[in-house]
Amino acid sequence: MSVPLTLLGLLEREPSHGYDLKRDYDAFFGRGRPLPFGQVYATLGRLARDGKVVISEVQPGVGPERKRYVITEQGATEFDAWLTEPLEAEPHLQSVLFTKVVLALMLGRPAQDYLDRQRGAHLERMRELTEIRRSGSLVDALLADHGLFHLEADLRWIDTTAARLDALAAEVVKR
């Protein structure tokens, strides 16, 4: 996820203080990985340096001054270009799963054991995501669905690879 572009999007909605941006980022996009305050302010500093945001007002606070950030025309243009550009649809053809299986086969290690353990880890995560989908908000449910669909695709790949393991071993060992 692009933190700078996400912050620009939040600022396009309304001018905000860094604290408010962090709160909204964490609520919608952080999910278990809250954005550190230091990263928020460092990112805002770079966005200001690059002319994508400006400080509209400074208020005294208990600690540091509270700065309200506003997106500039340049920032809005960059955000709009990013938002309207589709993601690259090409799948990741060199995944860690694939790498581990091939290396296990090349080294004469039990690739099937790795696939079995990975299947178990995927199924456990799917149970967790299913519970989130059942008990969470709509945002949580949609994020859980996204994760579940990716895990389902990985499970199909694990099963297909397990079925072809002997043929794959013959191919990677002969090289």
Could you provide a short overview of the structure?
This protein is mainly alpha-helical and 175 residues long. It is 69% helix and 9% strand. β2 and β3 form a beta hairpin.
Structural account:
With 175 residues, the chain is mainly α. It contains 8 helices and 3 strands, in the order αβααββααααα. Strands 1-3-2 form a 3-stranded antiparallel sheet. It is elongated, with a radius of gyration of 22 Å.
SSE topology:
Layout: H1 3-13, E1 16-17, H2 18-30, H3 37-49, E2 53-59, E3 66-71, H4 73-84, H5 96-106, H6 111-135, H7 138-163, H8 165-173
Antiparallel strand pairs: 1-3, 2-3
Question: What are the salient characteristics of this protein?
Answer:
single chain; 175 residues; elongated; mainly alpha; 3-stranded antiparallel sheet; 8 helices
**Helix and strand sequence:** HEHHEEHHHHH
Radius of gyration: 22 Å
Task: Report the mean per-residue pLDDT as an integer.
Answer: 89
Terminal Cα span: 38 Å
Strand sequence of the main sheet, in spatial order? 1-3-2
Strand fraction band?
5-15%
Number of strands: 3
Q: What global shape is seen?
A: elongated
Which stretches are low in confidence, meaning pLDDT under 50 for 5 or more residues running?
none
Q: Structural class, please?
A: mainly alpha
Query: The biggest beta sheet, please?
Result: 3 strands, antiparallel
Into which percent range does the helicity of residues fall? 55-70%
The DSSP helix count reads 8
